[in-house]
Amino acid sequence: MEPSYTVRQADLNDINEIMKINKICLPENYSFDFFYRILSEFGYVCVVAENEGVIVGYVLSRIERPFTSFLGVQNSKGHIISIAIIPKHRRKGLGLKTMKYGLKKLIDHDVETIYLEVRVSNVAAVEMYKKLGFYIKKEYKEYYRDGESALVMEWGKKESSEMT
Ligand SMILES: CC(C)(COP(=O)(O)OP(=O)(O)OC[C@H]1O[C@@H](n2cnc3c(N)ncnc32)[C@H](O)[C@@H]1OP(=O)(O)O)[C@@H](O)C(=O)NCCC(=O)NCCS
Question: What is the CATH topology of the domain spanning 5-156?
Answer without folding.
Answer: Aminopeptidase (3.40.630)
